[in-house]
Specification:
With 434 residues, this protein is mainly α. It is built from 15 helices and two strands. The mean pLDDT is 85.
Length: 434
């Protein structure tokens, strides 16, 4: 096994965030949701926008949420199986590649997304999400293998920082095409938006070659591979679940993480559609706002790492951040102006990277550090996150369809955050890793 804290290995690992975060910004946060909302809208603000998919009628934004919920459900089912194969053969990098190519090629296919190709485009959208999130379980499991516990906060934050910088660079390139399509011989902003999806796929594949070249393949665990790998993954999850009975702090943290993750990812995934549907903000302002949010997130992630390391500890910082998230959800319910939306977006930017980075490193610190079985533990972490996202996205979409307003869905998210912070409180007085 390679020596931990190797600068070249850590830098290569962080470049995977640089590569795939372009998907997270362009496809899930800015151009794609804005484009989706526009082409599925009837352009009448007084009516509800419906689309038909597989013979059923959906509110357009609810279909968007349900599609992502399906993607997360697929990942929750697949990742234990693939993690078991990676553990038995020591080839986790192979699966990182497989999901990367699936996601990137699906993004390239979205270049052909028009209202007439809605059916296949939704399928590609789901495949792109599966590719992105599926690769992360293997990417995250490298953290305790490449960094010692005292370095894991900063290394985790470095990954997110690389991701924000890389995604912003590509986003700015996409902006040029979207805002000035005629200068590049493009028909209109719609074609420029679709070109952005193609650029994401290419960017993702090209920069992923850096970690693919330099990261270790993984360590095969002795005794694995002699049984059925299609059931081994779930057996491993069951084993991790049994181990949690004797790992009190890790179990409490996972419960907290399960609930507040329902809110964190859902807010980030629906922010652009909320701005377009509820506030009727023009696409360029929405994209500019989300870009600002990404820029603010870089110092936010670093600040969280510094506060946890130097002053308060991981769990106390997470408690403070989750309280801010609760305030964000409640405030968003009452947002009606552009200025209010911009202020809220800046707040989300400061806390979104920090809570993701700190959650990953806190979980890593609670693990048995010398265990070779990190992929199974991170598979459990990933399944926990994906199941929470299925519930979060489905709840958001269902409440909107049931009540006719996305604002009511925000109250449910606030409830999830409250449950998360209650579990965090049960940890910080007993053990708070730094």
């Amino acid at each position: 096994m390679e020596q931990k804290n190797n600068k070249k290995t850590i830098r290569s690992w962080a470049f995977f965030d640089w590569a795939n975060s372009a998907y997270n910004l362009v496809i899930t946060s800015t151009i794609f949701p804005a484009y989706y909302a526009i082409i599925t809208s009837d352009k009448d603000d007084s009516t509800i926008d419906y689309v038909t998919f597989l013979g059923r009628k959906f509110i357009n934004s609810a279909l968007y949420n349900y599609s992502l919920a399906v993607a997360f459900l697929v990942i929750a089912i697949l990742s234990p199986i693939l993690s078991a194969i990676a553990d038995s053969r020591g080839n986790k990098k192979v699966f990182m590649k497989m999901f990367t190519y699936l996601g990137a090629l699906s993004c390239c296919g979205l270049y052909f997304f028009e209202i007439d190709t809605l059916q296949i485009s939704i399928v590609l959208f789901v495949f792109a999400a599966i590719g992105f999130w599926g690769s992360l379980v293997f990417y995250n499991s490298y953290l305790p293998e490449i960094a010692t516990p005292d370095q894991q906060d900063s290394v985790s934050a470095k990954g997110y920082a690389y991701g924000y910088v890389g995604s912003i660079i590509l986003q700015l390139m996409c902006f040029v095409f979207v805002f000035f399509p005629s200068a590049f011989g493009l028909a209109d902003g719609a074609q420029a938006s679709r070109l952005s999806f193609l650029m994401v796929g290419i960017w993702w594949v090209v920069f992923a070659q850096i970690p693919f070249r330099h990261l270790p393949n993984g360590v095969a665990i002795a005794g694995r591979g002699k049984s059925n790998v299609f059931t081994d993954g779930f057996k491993e999850l069951s084993k991790v679940w049994k181990q949690l009975k004797h790992m009190v702090y890790l179990k409490k943290f996972l419960l907290a993480f399960f609930f507040y993750s329902m809110g964190v990812q859902t807010v980030m995934l629906v922010a652009t559609i909320f701005g377009e549907k509820e506030l009727h903000l023009p696409t360029e302002k929405l994209i500019g706002t989300i870009l600002l949010l990404q820029i603010v997130a870089i110092p936010g992630a670093m600040l969280m790492s510094w506060l946890s390391r130097k002053h308060f500890g991981n769990v106390r910082v997470l408690i403070g951040v989750v309280f801010i998230w609760i305030g964000v959800c409640i405030t968003a319910y009452f947002v009606h102006t552009e200025l209010q939306f911009y202020f809220l977006a800046a707040t989300v930017g400061l806390i979104m990277g920090g809570i993701q980075s700190l959650s990953r490193s806190t979980y890593s610190k609670f693990l048995p550090q010398e265990s070779p079985d990190h992929t199974s533990f991170f598979s459990f972490y990933d399944v926990t996150e994906k199941v929470s996202l299925v519930i979060g996205m489905f709840s958001f979409g269902y409440i909107e369809e049931f009540t006719g307003s996305m604002r009511n869905s925000l109250i449910a998210l606030a409830t999830f955050f409250i449950l998360g912070v209650l579990f965090l409180f049960t940890i910080h007085k007993e053990k708070d890793p730094q």
